[in-house]
Structures are given as C-alpha cells and as structure tokens.
Amino acid sequence: MRGKSKCYDELYAYCETVPLVDCHDHSVKLGPKYTDPIQVIIGEYFLTDLGSATTEAEARILLDQEIPWEERWPILEKAWQRTCHTGYAQITRRVLKKFYDEDEVTLDALHRMEERLLDLEDKTRFEAILDEAKIAVRLADVWPDVKQVLDRIYELTPRARLVIPLPAYHRIRDYMGVQELMTPLGRTVTNLDEYIDACLEIFEGFKAYGAVAFKDQSAYFRSLNYSNPSRAEAEKVFNWFMEDPLRSASYPDGVQPLDDYLFHAFMRMARDMDLPVQVHTGPPAGLYGDITKANAAGLANLLMLHRDVRFDLFHANWPYSGEILFLCKAYPNVALDFCWANVIDPVYCQNLFRQALSSVPHSKIHGYGSDFGGFGYAPGGGYVDRAWAHAQIARENIAIALSDMVELEYLSFDEAREVAYAWLFGNANEFYQLGL
Ligand SMILES: [Zn+2]
C-alpha cells in the first residue's frame, strides 16, 4: 500500500527506522519448518479467509498433510481466487515476494517454492527476520509450563517477555480443574481463600520470572460483561463443586458468580503487583465466533471500578471502532492496542489511526502486535516471516493515516514523526515498563 499524501514516502521511510514493541505474540517455540508450499500460503489466520470463501470442510483438507500438496492445490486455487484481496492475503503476498521472490500464487510458483522452503526452527534465521522487521521485544502469551516458570527454567523464544495467562484461573468449574491448576505448587486447596492465595503465589512467581503483564482472552468463552457478585455468591459455587469431585458447575449461569468474583480479585492483584492487563476485545479467531460477547463496551463497569489498573484493550476492538475510541478517550486507565487488527482489516486501522489522533490522547495508542503462533498449520510456531510482513503493514497503516493528517494540515510533519515513534515503540515501552 502507498499513501496518496505528498509526505507519505518520507514518513514511511522514517517508520521503517523505528524499532517495534510487538505487544502480542504466541511463539511458543521457533518455527515452523515448512514442509510444503501450501503451508506458506495459508500460514495461520489466512486459513479462516480461505474457509470463509469456500467451506470449513475444504479448509480442513488444506490442512491435511496426509494428502500430497499437489492434490490439495485445486482447492487452494479456487479459494485463493475468491479471497486474494484481504489483509491476511496481503501477508501471504508479501511473504511470497520477500522470501521466495514470487508475485503470484500459481502452481508453478509453488513448485519453485518447494525447493527453498523456510526453516524457521533455525534460530539464526528466526532472529535475522526479527532484526529485519526491527522487532525489539515481544510480549509472549504462550501458556507456559507453570512449574518451569516458577522454577525460572522456562525457555522463551528470542526477544520475548512473558505475560501471565489469566483465563484458566477464573474459569474453574470443578474440583479436578482446581487441583490441576495447583499442581505446580504441589498443594491441594480446600476452600476459596486457599485458592485465591495460591493464585497470587503463582502470579508472583510469574512476576519474579520476569512477566510484564497479565493477559486475558475470556471473550472466547464468555461475555466481557463482568458483574460484581458478592464473595458469598462466589463461595457458594466454589464450595458446591469442591464438596463432591464429580460435580461440575454449569456454563454460563452456574459458573458466572465465581468467574466474575475471581476476575475482580485478579484485577486487584494486578493493581498491587503494578502489572498492566491485556484484554482480548473484538474478533475471536476462527470461524463462527460470537462478536457481541467480545465488544469492549461490555467492560465499562469493570474499567470504571478498577481505576488503578492499566488496561490494554486488544485488536482495536474490531469492528467496533466507536466503542474503543470512547473508552480510550474517557477512561484514563485504558489504552488502545492495534495488535492483530492491522492485518485483519488494514483500512479499518488506517481510519482508526486517523480518528484516534483527533479524538484520543496519542500517548495511549499501541500500534503493533504480531499475534501469530496460536493457531493454524503449526500451532506454537513463531511464523516470524509473517510477523515481518505484519510489521510492514502496521508501519504502512500508521504512515498512511498520519501523512493524510499532515496533508490536511492537522499537524506538522515533525509532529507526525513523533506520533509515529510513540505508536510503534515509545508508548508501549513506557506502558509495559520495558526499560528499552
Ligand atoms: Zn492472540
């Protein structure tokens, strides 16, 4: 993409020099080591566009490595022709051009690629691509082995700083689930007090390891609308299932008082531990998600109550731009994070960057988060090739938005450079106290 404003090229060139804080990454390990060219095309999120353009069943066939890739090609070809203009397809196009020098998705191109598929398990290669993208640090949401974290032997991928994964700790619904979470402490808990104390001990262990934030993506499982139940209501649910290991509290109504109560308790811990909280808002990954549950507007009461907690609301709340602008403008404890969103919908982000400049303090915007590794062909693999393409798109989106605003004489070119620096690096560095 190339902006139309006179200063676009110069501003984009500047953005290319600015290092990035990658606010959100799921690289559990190095990788993937691609073994067939179709993997390179569908990568991770693009699979959902391919599925959306055809059928879920056909998307599953694309993933099936038991079938030779040439036999899967006709399905890919049809799907590609139907969805080659999305943001995710932009990533595929850029990866093809950069790493394989191919301009088109064709059978011939795939045959040529087959000879030189990237091995991203190679640490030197992995880091070289991070260097090229100028990714300085990555906030890693990687669901680690908790015992290894507490023992401080857990190994992160290059440049990663850990975040504390929250959902499992407030989604509890039965005795066994509770005790499994406590395994790393080697302890059996018997009541709610013990459970909450143990959670705090685990979270403090994460912080001692180096964790820089909490992360919650409960919008995949429940509404973000947290009520404020009493301790007695929560304890009643907890005691009920603890009394008999065969019992399981029902979803959603049976578990909600406990789930909500614990989430508030964890927010108080975040405040006392001085760690920000990353919250998934907006689109669930994959097909057939429920977007209404995930609208950040549902968080209003929670954000209002926990004024001393710093919240980073993810994915630009796509597609609810108005709600996220309001929250970020009116709530001092809320930041707007564009992780993942820059490639879900580049034009949405260009518009939102422009609108955010004119409505929200520019110190509250975090411009980039790669968000690869949780999904798709090689779950856990870093897809750093795609993180590179994503970084380029994020820089373009910001340069397009800000250069347009310079053209409108809304701000000067030098001011636009300062804002771009803050959005790509400075704001997140400060917000997460990364000390870079
Ligand atoms: Zn994510």
CATH class designation of the largest domain: Alpha Beta
Given helix and strand content, the structural type is alpha/beta
Q: What is the end-to-end distance? A: 30 Å
User: What is the rounded Rg?
Assistant: 22 Å
Could you give me the name of the CATH homologous superfamily of the largest domain?
Answer: Metal-dependent hydrolases
Shape: globular
Keywords for this entry:
binds zinc ion, single chain, 51% helix, TIM Barrel, eight-stranded parallel sheet, 436 residues, 20 helices, 8% strand, 8 strands, globular, alpha/beta
What does the model show?
- The chain is an alpha/beta fold.
- It folds into two domains: 36-114; 123-431, TIM Barrel, CATH 3.20.20.
- Helices cover 51% and strands 8% of the residues.
- The chain is built from 20 helices and eight strands.
- Strand 2 (135-140), helix 9 (146-150) and strand 3 form a beta-alpha-beta unit.
- The longest helix has 24 residues, at 384-407.
- It is globular, with a radius of gyration of 22 Å.
- The two termini are 30 Å apart.
- The protein binds zinc ion.
- Residues 24, 26, 141, 371, 374 line the site of zinc ion.
